[in-house]
Amino acid sequence: MPEDSDWEAYKVPPTRTPVSERITSVPNPVTFFQTVFNYVIDAPVTFVREWIERQQAKNKFYYYHQKFRRVPDLSECLEGDYLCFFEAEAQWRRDRMVDQEIVEIVRERLGACKQREGPNQFQNCAKEVEQLAQVIKAYQDRYGDLGVHGNARTCLMKQKHRMMEERKAQANASQ
């Protein structure tokens, strides 16, 4: 910077911002509307929300730990008991979703083992491979060949036919 700088041309800004003085006696409409909004709308809504949160804090409900009571199987329902049929169907769908998740978890464990072990996966992940084979076989035995529109009745009929084939095979083997 040159030595002969003119300090009047380059004034330093003030260190504090000056307070604006009201020139009119009319109140500012913005502050009026803010105050009205706070007391008329915001305060009651905040009160109601805090009250609801206090009530919910007293009664904790964990939706992810929902437990359904076991209902009778479709084979245990009486003829014409449509409510029992519906409950058995809902129970079967929940069981199927749980079994699907079990297969996925075991499959993810096997994938993690393979990723972790690398070239030694065939030796060190044999237990996980065997477990996955058992889980998939059990899932296929119960739900295989039902298709997308499978339901509790077709699953029960499939199991009945499989049991009859096994009995027939035992009878033929013993003769």
Automatic annotation (TrEMBL):
Cell compartments where the protein resides: Mitochondrion inner membrane
Membrane topology (UniProt): Peripheral membrane protein
Chief location of this protein within or outside the cell: mitochondrion
Keywords assigned by UniProt, alphabetized: Electron transport, Membrane, Mitochondrion, Mitochondrion inner membrane, Respiratory chain, Transport
Domain of life of the source: Eukaryota
Annotated GO CC locations: mitochondrial inner membrane; respiratory chain complex I
InterPro entries: NADH_UbQ_OxRdtase_su10, NDUFB10
Function of the molecule: Accessory subunit that is involved in the functional assembly of the mitochondrial respiratory chain complex I. Complex I has an NADH dehydrogenase activity with ubiquinone as an immediate electron acceptor and mediates the transfer of electrons from NADH to the respiratory chain.
Similarity comment: family membership: Belongs to the complex I NDUFB10 subunit family.
Protein name (Swiss-Prot/TrEMBL): NADH dehydrogenase [ubiquinone] 1 beta subcomplex subunit 10
Organism encoding this protein: Fregata magnificens
